[in-house]
User: Fold this.
Amino acid sequence: MKQRHRIYYSEKQKALMWERWRKGESLEHIAQLFDRHHSSVQRIIGEAGGIPPAKRHRSRLALTLAEREEISSALVAGDSIQSIASRLARAPSTICREIKRNSGQDGYRASHADQLAWDRAQRPKVCKLVEHRMLARIVADKLQLEWSPEQIAGWLRRAYPDNEDYHVSHETIYRSLFIQARGVLKKELLEHLRRTRVMRRSRHYTQKTGDHGRIRDTVSISERPATIEDRAVPGHWEGDLLCGSGSSQIATLVERQTRYVMLVKIASKDSEVVADALIKHACKLPQELYKSLTWDRGTEMASHKRFTVATDIAVYFCDPQHPWQRGSNENTNGLLRQYFPKGTDLSVYSQTRLNAVARRLNERPRKTLNYETPAERFNQTIASTG
Assistant:
């Protein structure tokens, strides 16, 4: 069997790979730039866990190439260590170490010494989670609660404002998960991330598109009052259906100001059935906390006028192919896939189970809420309206 040769890429080619990866291009598309199979690109991207490596730079305290050339010329001229150090405004010990570690006085060459220094500097830094094992345990515990690395990092800064030993960036947590050579966080914790991938994807990798149908007598989102748009007052919700296998679905509702989540069991996508379920559920909240609902263009809301007459709740619809106009709900549906993966039969879940999942989401700290939880904010809203 003929042995396959390992494919090597130049630093310039690798930089191009990472540039395209950040833009959200697929491995297959990137590989086409080099007329290679996608596995050769995956090797480069995968070794870093999909996280672009930081750009290397020299320390401002390190000797420069010009200084090394001065050292080389001075040694040829027979100058002393002290005189070289004086001319360069460096400590004699710095010049002495530089010469000893780079072939000595007789073999010192500026360019060779400069390259050796650059190569020696390429070593991995000690991860903060290695140095602080208690911090690593806290991070692992929160990951098991399905908190995202960004939520964990934000919550730690809020919980320990004066103790920097307990502050860690979300990127450090991701690196510890995706680059397993560090051995800090167990690989099994990857299963608790929102998206169970083996390496990080660009935020631009996928975009949901598509028009879900046409509905008569809709009120456009452009007619929604400014107080709803800027989230100035509570009581305005975004909604959609999360679909599973066998035509099963659940309704997902998110309050725009507090990001509070409610899930509603739906028997079918029939518009009358959906309207009945939403009307029944709307009665559980005081009118001050449920004033409007913004929905996608799905035909399941064809009975929106009957819903408004029964509840006095205004319904607004996104523009066609603009699901991001109800971004809070879109984001929440992505989070819910962690509990209800695509292809799951959602009809088997009781309303009690749906309430438990919603409670789990509502008890997670959110960056947009300054790392308070939706439950905290929603309860404050209830207290102020009561």
Remarks:
- Strands lie at 236-243, 249-255, 261-266, 292-295, 314-317.
